[in-house]
Amino acid sequence: MYNPNLGCTPVHARFLTVLLFSILLVACGGGGSSNDTPAPGVNERSLDSPEDVPNDPGIESPEPEPLPATIELGAYHRDAIYPKIKVKYLEYVPTTSGNLIGVRVTLPANEDGTPAEGPFPTILVQSAYNISMISFMPMPGGVLLGAPDPYMVRRGYAQVSVDVIGGGVSEGGWEMLGAEEQSGYGDAVDWIKQQPWSNGDIGVAGASYMAITGLFTAQQRPDDIKAVFASVPMGDAQRGTVGIGGMLNATFMSKWMTLTHLTSTQNIPAMIQFPKLMDQISKSTADHIAQIDNYYLPIIDATINGDPEVTYDGEFWRTRSPIEKMDQIQAPTFFMGALNDIFQRDAPLLYETLKDRVDSRLVIYNGDHVSHFLQAFPGTDKVDPILHLMLQWFDQYLMGMDAQVDSIPPVTQYVRNYQFGMWQGFATTTDWPHPAAMPERWYLRGDMGLSRQMPEMPEPSHEMATPPFADYEYRKNEQGGLLILNVFLNDGTECSPSFVQWTLGSAGIATPKVCFWDRDKLERSALNYESEPMAEDYYINGPIQADIWMESTKTEAVLAVRIDEVTQSGRVIPITDGMLLASARTVDPLRSRYLNGEMIQPYHYFTQAAETFLIPGEPTLMQVEIFPTSALIRKGNKLRVSISPSNQAQGMLNEPRRELAQDGITTIHNSPQYPSSVVLPIVPLSELN
């Protein structure tokens, strides 16, 4: 049952604890919340629930204490309307796919614990990480994960938390945001509209996977979804996350797929909590276990062996990419991202698709997928606490209040090195990319320098050897109920910023190491090109492109490029990076981004038709997309471009490509004929506010 002592825990710790439980699997589910009779389902496949629990007092949750940042910023806030919340009994709802999905409804409640008289505007969150595991732990901000959220519900919102098809207690098999799963998103909306506690005004909210499902839902039901609050959402599944540079992001996929399968099978607590639904929950769990053989192992095998459906861009990845149909969203949308998030590339691009058509905002924090919440929840020097922002957004567009959302700047970004102090250094602007950005090109020189002048005479070139490829294993565990998927990196990048980024930040929390943030020791074997000390602070804001002339002794090769700052003491501070597979280098000029006539964000086809292998010994231009950032390189410090033949923490070669790249030697050119360079988006210091 609900533990009332939980309310004594600081609200920030409570939110982050559940966040880690849900995303990093620090713990498993348990406990329970108050029962209630579910509303009628939409057809005869709905399951009956037990009777109400007599004299159920409902759940009461204290409000978070005001923080100095809240007072200084004058954050939007209003008092709770209702004293308690009511978490209704688990119920099953049918979908057009034929699968039943598990649903938990949380309603405002009176002092005696009975649901308040509605109807209410509704916030929908849909998760692949098993809502029953966290439904026993109500907390302010929980709606971002699917946990009951007293902060929002006590202010007059109904909350609906759903296990997607193939996840948690829902039927079916998970297929990585596939079409069948997506069909259930609209079914959830249709069901909500039929419920007596709903007034028909629906918003979607969520972090990570839950933000992605929210965007897909807003695309499917544009007339029904009135507001979107999406924290760290994915945009382009292949280019931004899973297939960076045309390769396989195996570090991320190994964590994500095992996480999703593990949470989908941890249903014993739900069976104990809802004994009358035990048979149904058991059936759903059996569906998820069977999916190891039906889907997980076959798709991993196909990916490793270069099956065209998952190797190249096409219907498979376009179906799973919310950015493809952003033009269908009609709802005002609030985006949150982070500089080293797994969706670092995508959050600003998603904002860009909507900014001219619907009311939109973009906030980019420092940190990775998990750690940025340390800033988002309490608020920062220029960003209100996430609870207040979410309330303000939904009050404006779901409640119909004048919540003064015009006071929120269009774009707020954390700028590295801008101000000293914990999470200080946010700057606001009117657009993304920054409207004052201009391209500035730096050339790689034969003496390992970086210069704004192109080489005028032939200069020495430099070589890199292809390192040993990553190892991997994939199978079922001995009992046959869980997926085992492990990746073993062999190029040194298991101790790198990329490894922290693509383990969702978990590596930095579980085993923090100096080399996660300072690359001096690891990169002594890389090709590191450094500028002279900066004569003044140097402000980079936006996407970056590296135009590298290379040749190889093989027909396939990898180029990894990272942008660093080198301090006067010699410390190497990573800023951002990118990588590209040589055979995937062909660029679509019409979809690439230009700044003052310079291409600064290449868009690669990544299709089989555009695949072009190297001719050994022939210099070839590689236009590498480096993910966007915002950073100051301080006066007296150096800009550095680090080039490597591998970054297995971010991208791994499949078996056919390994055969083509094995034992290759890559040469980087820097001459008048083949001038390797990077182009940076530079913003005047006067733009910092």
How is the secondary structure organized here?
Layout (H helix, E strand, L loop, with lengths): L10 H14 L43 H6 L10 E4 L3 E4 L5 E10 L10 E8 L22 H4 L4 E6 L15 H15 L4 E10 L1 H12 L4 E7 L5 H6 L7 H16 L2 H6 L4 H27 L3 H4 L3 H5 L13 E6 L7 H9 L5 E6 L7 H4 L9 H14 L11 E4 L11 E4 L8 E7 L5 E2 L10 E4 L5 E6 L6 E6 L8 H6 L3 H5 L16 E4 L7 E15 L5 E9 L5 E10 L11 E3 L2 E4 L18 E14 L4 E7 L10 H7 L3 E4 L8 E6 L7
Parallel strand pairs: 4-5, 4-6, 6-7, 7-8, 8-9, 9-10
Antiparallel strand pairs: 1-3, 2-3, 3-5, 10-11, 12-13, 12-26, 14-25, 15-16, 17-24, 18-23, 18-25, 18-26, 19-20, 19-24, 21-22
Helix pairs in contact: 4-5, 7-9
Structure commentary:
- By secondary structure, this protein is an alpha+beta fold.
- The chain has 2 domains: 426 residues, Alpha/Beta hydrolase fold, catalytic domain (Rossmann fold), CATH 3.40.50.1820; 202 residues, Sandwich (Jelly Rolls).
- The protein is built from 17 helices and 26 strands.
- The longest helix has 27 residues.
- The chain is globular, with a radius of gyration of 25 Å.
Short structural summary:
The chain is an alpha+beta fold and 689 residues long. The protein is built from 17 helices and 26 strands.
Measured as a percent range, the helix fraction is 10-25%
Number of structural domains: 2
- Weakly predicted, low-confidence segments: 1-56, 64-73
CATH superfamily placement of the largest domain: Alpha/Beta hydrolase fold, catalytic domain
Distance between the termini: 49 Å
CATH architecture of the largest domain: 3-Layer(aba) Sandwich
Average residue pLDDT: 89
